[in-house]
Structures are given as structure tokens and as C-alpha cells.
């Protein structure tokens, strides 16, 4: 089975800190995604990567950046964390448009 | 803009009954419609995919229908069990790009014994 591993389940940071969320997949998938999930708003795409060093902005990229230096790893960076970035962050990978594999999520709290 | 709507209210069903969840969409012509299950504090898990040219898909106790005229999908769980309690998300995707996958906000299903 595909495994998508997110580095932290829970994270507490202070306003203004630089935050790194890491995601690793083990199935050689080309596509990797970062979503955030908030109650009532569903999953919103932050960034998408379709290959090493390739990325596309999603619906809500402001305040975030990403890095994909290796195929299996996709990092989400909050340059200067703010309280409105408190959320559940979900990483996913896929080889097609038909099925996404998600990690367990990182619940980030920014105080 | 593209929009997906799922039952906003939680659904409470007696064990053994059939649970039916609805997914409606607008301003989108999906090639595929997917259903995922999400347990509290976990990431979504893929359940089923149905293509635009398919009317119905089954997998064990699950059945999905897809009506591209009504722009609606129905997700059925027959002989429901308490272990089926979770939030169910529908998602639409096109063939053009994986970045165009959009998700509904989900319906919380509770099966009472």
C-alpha cells in the first residue's frame, strides 16, 4: 500500500515563526499536494507539484511556499506564521487524477 | 465559480439501514467523481471512483451513482454498521490536471446501534 508520511501530527508555533511541514511518499508518484482543511470549508489546495522542482499555486497560496527537491519529498513552508494559518494540513500524492493518497495530517496551532 | 455541495447536516442512521449521502456540483464538467472516507484527526481515504460515462458503481456494501445531467452523485452504504461512522467527502476531477481536483466539505455520518 502507498504510504504518505507527514512529519508531525501536532505542531504548536508562535506568530512570526518560520514553519516547515514535511511530507514523504513511497510510491514514486509524480503528483504531490498540500491542502488545508478547516471546518465547513472542506479541503482547499495550497500548492501542487507535478514533478521535481515543478509547482503550481492552488487556491490559497498566500503566505505559503513549497519545495520539491526530490521526487518523494514535498515540503510546505510558512514564511512567517500567523494565527489565521491555524489549521489541519494534509499532504497527498497521486500518479493520476483518479485517486489521491493522503497522509494523516498535521494539526498546526499558531499562537 | 466551481462548487460542490454535500449534505451540510450530519446524518444519523439506525444500524442496518441504508445511508444515502448526496453530492451536488455546479460549473464543472468532471471526468471522474471520487468518494473518500475521513475519520476524526486522520487524512481522507479513497473509497470509490466513478467515471462520467458510468451510471453506477458498486464495491461490497457501497454503491455510487453519477448523474451528469442532474450534476449529482449519490453514495449509498447498505446494511450500515457503527464502524461506518465517519465523514464522507466527494471530489471531482477532470482529465486535464490533477491540480483541478476539488473537494466537498463532507457529510458526517453516524450509525447508531
Low-pLDDT runs of 5+ residues of chain A are none
Fraction of residues in H or I helices of chain A? under 10%
| Whole-number mean pLDDT of chain A | 94
Please tally the β strands of chain A and state the result.
11
Most strands sheet of chain B = 6 strands, mixed
CATH fold-level name of chain A = Immunoglobulin-like
**Hey, roughly how much beta strand do the residues of chain A contain?**
over 45%
CATH superfamily of chain B: Immunoglobulins
Sequence stretches where pLDDT stays below 50 over 5 or more residues of chain B:
none
When the domains of chain A are counted, the total is 1
Helical run tally of chain A? 0
Number of domains of chain B: 1
Helix content of chain B: under 10%
* H and E string of chain A: EEEEEEEEEEE
What global shape of chain B is seen?
Answer: globular
- Measured between the Cα atoms of the first and last residue of chain B, the distance is 41 Å
Describe the structure.
The complex is a heterodimer of chains A (111) and B (113). Helices cover 0% and strands 58% of the residues of chain A. In chain A, a hairpin with a 6-residue loop joins strand 9 and strand 10 (101-102). Chain A has a single domain (4-93), classed as Immunoglobulin-like (Sandwich), CATH 2.60.40. Chain A is built from no helices and 11 strands. Chain A is an all-beta fold. In chain A, the strands form 2 sheets. In chain A, strands 2, 4, 5, 6, 9, 10 and 11 form a 7-stranded mixed beta sheet that branches. In chain A, strands 1-3-8-7 form a 4-stranded antiparallel beta sheet, with no helix packed on it. The mean pLDDT of chain A is 94. Chain A is globular, with a radius of gyration of 13 Å. The radius of gyration of chain B is 14 Å and the shape is globular. Chain B has strands at residues 3-6, 11-14, 19-26, 32-38, 45-51, 56-59, 62-67, 72-77, 86-93, 102-103, 107-112. Chain B contains no helices and 11 strands. Chain B has a single domain, classed as Sandwich (Immunoglobulin-like), CATH 2.60.40. By secondary structure, chain B is mostly beta strands. In chain B, the strands form 2 sheets. In chain B, strands 2, 4, 5, 9, 10 and 11 form a 6-stranded mixed beta sheet that branches. A 5-stranded antiparallel beta sheet of chain B has the order 1-3-8-7-6, with no helix packed on it. Chain A binds chain B through residues 4, 9, 31, 33, 35, 40-43, 45, 48, 50, 56, 58, 90, 92, 94, 96-105, 107, and chain B through 4, 31-32, 34, 36, 41-46, 49, 89, 91, 93-95, 97-101, 103-106.
Amino acid at each position: 500500500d502507498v504510504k504518505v508520511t507527514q512529519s508531525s501530527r501536532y505542531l504548536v508555533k508562535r506568530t512570526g515563526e518560520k514553519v516547515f511541514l514535511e511530507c514523504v511518499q513511497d510510491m514514486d508518484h509524480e503528483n504531490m499536494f498540500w491542502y488545508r482543511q478547516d471546518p465547513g470549508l472542506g479541503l482547499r489546495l495550497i500548492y501542487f507539484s507535478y514533478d521535481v522542482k515543478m509547482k503550481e499555486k492552488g487556491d490559497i497560496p498566500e503566505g505559503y511556499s513549497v519545495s520539491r527537491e526530490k521526487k518523494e519529498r514535498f515540503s510546505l513552508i510558512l514564511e512567517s506564521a500567523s494565527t489565521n494559518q491555524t489549521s489541519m494540513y494534509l499532504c497527498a500524492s497521486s500518479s493520476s487524477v483518479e485517486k489521491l493518497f493522503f497522509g494523516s495530517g498535521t494539526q498546526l496551532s499558531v499562537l | 465559480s466551481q462548487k460542490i455541495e454535500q449534505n451540510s447536516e450530519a446524518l444519523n442512521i439506525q444500524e442496518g439501514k441504508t445511508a444515502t449521502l448526496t453530492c451536488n456540483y455546479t460549473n464543472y464538467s468532471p471526468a471522474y467523481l471520487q468518494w473518500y472516507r475521513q475519520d476524526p484527526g486522520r487524512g481522507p481515504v479513497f473509497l470509490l471512483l466513478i467515471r462520467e460515462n458510468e451510471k453506477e458503481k458498486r464495491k461490497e456494501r457501497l454503491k455510487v451513482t453519477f448523474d451528469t445531467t442532474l450534476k449529482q452523485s449519490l453514495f449509498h452504504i447498505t446494511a450500515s454498521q457503527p464502524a461506518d461512522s465517519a465523514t464522507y467527502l466527494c471530489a471531482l476531477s477532470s482529465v486535464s490536471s490533477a491540480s483541478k481536483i476539488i473537494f466537498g466539505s463532507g457529510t458526517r455520518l453516524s450509525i447508531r446501534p
